[in-house]
Amino acid sequence: MSDLIHFIDQILGVSEGIRSLSLMQVAIRAVLIYILGYAILRIGDNRFVGRSTPFDIVLGFIFGTTLSRAINGAAPFFDTMGAAIVLVGLHWFFITLAYHSDRINLLLNGRAIPLIKKGVRQENNLRRKRIDTRLLEENMRIEARLEDLENVRDAYLERSGMISFIPKSKQATVIDVKVEDGVQTVRIQVS
Fold first, then answer.
1. What's the burial of 48, exposed, middle or buried (CB within 10 Å: 0-12/13-18/19+)?
2. What are 117's strand-pairing partners?
3. Long-range pairs of 146-151 with CB within 8 A, sequence gap ≥ 24
4. Among 21, 112, 151, 174, which one is most buried in terms of CB atoms within 10 A?
5. Cα separation of 123 and 114, whole Å?
6. Dihedral sign for Cα atoms in the order 96, 99, 103, 107
7. For residue 24, what pLDDT is reported?
């Protein structure tokens, strides 16, 4: 058993300080952290990797920072892995609570903020979120493939920070065409 501990210590430099780690030890730590970090995310909940909400983003930063300290030896290797597991478990716990409780969900994730409602710009919300017309139009072109804000019925600043757009429904034009001698009227609807 002591041979195994000595071998792990030699490969990972567990008992050595940050300045004592060799390039090989840092490289092996990086590979192990990559594999273990990936496994922790797969076992836990890797939703925060998609950057769904500010709550998820914060965990992503903390998780990455924690794991990096294990790679460069700034923190004890095994203690850091334990902390990473606790972080993902805590995140899983909070998102489970948020799933079951609207109040906790609102507290952790916030809500969508209307920027345009029924074609009317919500100036207070736009000003409060510091979204000017150019930014709104840019997002509209990219996300909704629309060219003019007049074509937008509703727009929301989503919890993820993205702006979503709901276009106005197009009114269909109906044209009645009469045909000569015994043929019925044909109705053409143009969208």
1. buried
2. 120
3. 149/116, 149/121, 150/119
4. 21
5. 10
6. positive
7. 85
Provide the pairing of β-strand 113-117 with 152-157.
antiparallel
Q: Give the residue ranges of the chain where pLDDT is below 70.
A: 15-19, 44-52, 170-191
Buried b (16+ CB within 10 A) or exposed e, 4-15: eeeeeeeebbee
Domain boundaries defined on the chain: 2-105, 111-191
191 Cβ contact partners less than 8 Å away, ≥ 6 residues apart: 170, 172, 173
User: Cα angle vertex 54, ends 115, 33, to 5°?
Assistant: 150
The CATH class for the domain spanning 111-191 reads alpha beta
Which helix or strand (DSSP H or E) is residue 190 part of? Answer: strand 186-190
Give the Å distances, CA to CA, from 76 to 12, 71, 72, 126. 11, 9, 10, 47
DSSP 184: P
